[in-house]
Amino acid sequence: MSIYITKLVKISRYLPLTFRTLCSSKPHEFEPLEADDSKMPPIPQYEIKKDESIDQKKARLLYQSRKRGMLENCLLLSTFAAKYLKDMTVEETEQYDKLINLPPNDWDIYYWATGHKPVPSEFDNKIMKLLKEHVSNKDKEQRYQQPDLHDN
């Protein structure tokens, strides 16, 4: 039996961080990564779409919530959008649009939502509070994959 555990430990080095921390008995404490913005390529400023209907905006935000480029945010934001986006008001939808599109670094969104960094005042609103509540996962839902698109 111990040989299997040893093999699992060796294999776990190559698994995503989220899986390793779920399987770990150690406390889940880590230091946020600090990016050196001077070495980052310039990212074009996001422009808010003015002539977009609310249904188009929600469809776009649902897609953008699923395609983040990092697994952690894909899982958090896709499950959040599947649960809350359809019932958001126009104002809440605009807040969510700004939250997921204005920050130049997706890790910032992750650190704000998980409470590892303070939320800037421009994003500290009802949607961020709802996202933090969703991330806390009080109902202990399993979020290891994105929800199906046809369920939304």
From TrEMBL:
Query: What protein family is recorded?
Result: Belongs to the SDHAF2 family.
> PANTHER family from the entry?
PROTEIN EMI5 HOMOLOG, MITOCHONDRIAL, SUCCINATE DEHYDROGENASE ASSEMBLY FACTOR 2, MITOCHONDRIAL
The record's subcellular locations are:
Mitochondrion matrix
Q: What does this protein do?
A: Plays an essential role in the assembly of succinate dehydrogenase (SDH), an enzyme complex (also referred to as respiratory complex II) that is a component of both the tricarboxylic acid (TCA) cycle and the mitochondrial electron transport chain, and which couples the oxidation of succinate to fumarate with the reduction of ubiquinone (coenzyme Q) to ubiquinol. Required for flavinylation (covalent attachment of FAD) of the flavoprotein subunit of the SDH catalytic dimer.
* SUPFAM superfamilies in alphabetical order: YgfY-like
Quaternary structure (record) = Interacts with the flavoprotein subunit within the SDH catalytic dimer.
Q: What is this protein called?
A: Succinate dehydrogenase assembly factor 2, mitochondrial
* InterPro entries in the cross-refs: SDH (IPR005631), SDH_sf (IPR036714), SDHAF2 (IPR028882)
Q: What does UniProt give as GO cellular component?
A: mitochondrial matrix
- Quick check: keyword Chaperone in the entry? yes
Top-level division of the source organism's lineage: Eukaryota
What keywords sit in the KW lines? Chaperone, Mitochondrion
One GO term (biological process): mitochondrial electron transport, succinate to ubiquinone
